[in-house]
From TrEMBL:
PANTHER family: BIS(5'-ADENOSYL)-TRIPHOSPHATASE, ECTONUCLEOTIDE PYROPHOSPHATASE/PHOSPHODIESTERASE. It comes from the Archaea. SUPFAM superfamilies: Alkaline phosphatase-like. This is Type I phosphodiesterase/nucleotide pyrophosphatase. The lineage of its organism: Archaea, Methanobacteriati, Methanobacteriota, Stenosarchaea group, Halobacteria. GO terms for molecular function: hydrolase activity.
Amino acid sequence: MDDSTDETGLSLLVVGLDAACRPILHPLFESGAVPTLQRVFETGTSGPLESQIPPWTASAWPSMYTGKNPGKHGVFDFLSFDGYDWDVVNSTHVRERPVWELLSEHGISSVVVNVPVTHPSREFDGALIPGMTAPEDPDCHPEGILEDVKLACGDYRIYPQSGPEPDRSIEGYERTIELRGKAFRYLCRRIDPDFGFVQFQQTDSVFHERPGDKKAIEAVYREVDSQLAETIEETDPDNVLVVSDHGMGPVSGPEFRINEFLRDEGYLGALKGGEGMPDWSKAWENDLLEGDDAGSNETSAIETAMNAAAKVGVTTQRVATALDYVRLKEPIGRRVPNDMIRAASEQVDFPNSQVYMRSKSELGLRINLEGREPNGQVAASEYEQVRDEVIDNLADVRTPDGEPVFDAVAPREVYFDGPHVEHAPDIVTVPAAFDTAVVADLGQAQFGEPMESWNHKQTGVVAAAGEAFDEQAGLEGATIFDIAPTICSLFDVPIDAAMDGTTLPIVEESTTTEYPAYEPAPITATDDSAVEDRLSDLGYL
């Protein structure tokens, strides 16, 4: 590899903005906060980019970079499940070929930075630093490259909380974004790639951690825009493609606690005292709060606070936000034992239930099927009957205002196809306009005020500018699955016939071919409690 610092020229720069969408970007355009992004949108062509179901980071980015639906690539959620046990997903769970590996097979080099679910990295022509679901200081490709990046750039981090700034501070966001841009540019100088893909996660995280905080949102986007401006100036890309995995917006409808509904309908059992399965928090302590260590507080005070929090549905999920919601964050301190949190709430008794929601970001329900789950309660002969009953019951659910809770409740086969459909939830639940939060909590009424005031929407955004793009072409109907075949077409690389998307009309479509079966690495566990804590902080666990 070349260690020179000469300016490079990318054929294609893909910029991933997690959760970006028109309702978020338009006010920033109007205020002049993001001139570089605005120029890409206004000089090129742009439009909505429909995400998949579920429109959540861990499943959507693999769909984008493989061009295939979760039934083919195998990732449906931040978690993978084995019976009632779980693990955080990583790249070994992605069972289809990433586009940069496909490009590598055709002699095209790439630099990939911060794309979610790419750890551990595989060999290809280029360099990769993984993004979300990777541990801090992850293994990168080539080996040892992260140490070089840190020496050249001063530091690097995947999560702002790993740095010296206070958790969720604006300065922490800005520094993380700055390091992201510096690392990408350093690798472009070193590798001199044809293809570059840099992703910014804080455009999503800021809405989960500081919902409605306009100052923080604008600061995040200003820094992203600054890094994009420097990157375009230094790498001089022929073409720029901006993409997002989903949208973001306020949640104005109520929260629907679907497991509570299933309990009332007789499908689900529950346990108290932290005995439910699976153990949703492997780590002993939750490090997400601010203030003094909980060890400095009396145990009785913590128990009192946890019991109070449980009355409004606090579980190990979103501990910091939840305690703040009930005005208990400051008295409790920084470290709260998860066992105490769990003991104050109810959990699903998975082995003794017929139907349940395992994870809210899976957007679906699992049937406890005999012969598949360790303690299956539904016989194979009754599977379709039970599934149809639950689908019909949920389709009729209305909010307290009389509005449908769901746009669709359907068998998984309606949304997924491929060899890994059996890992999908049996029933897919699509909230109405994603304006009703569907959660897995127990111990409260079926409906209540949403714990999160902002959450994902299905429509993201795409914009393209450059000499290879037909900037007069419309992008109506673009989907997340179209990005990988569009990248292939720009490089005149044959499109994998198994991709679910098609080339966007901005570039001439290349040929299609059937590639040899992909041979991914054996699935390995993500053994890092900090990753779990980070996902919990963002409300995904």
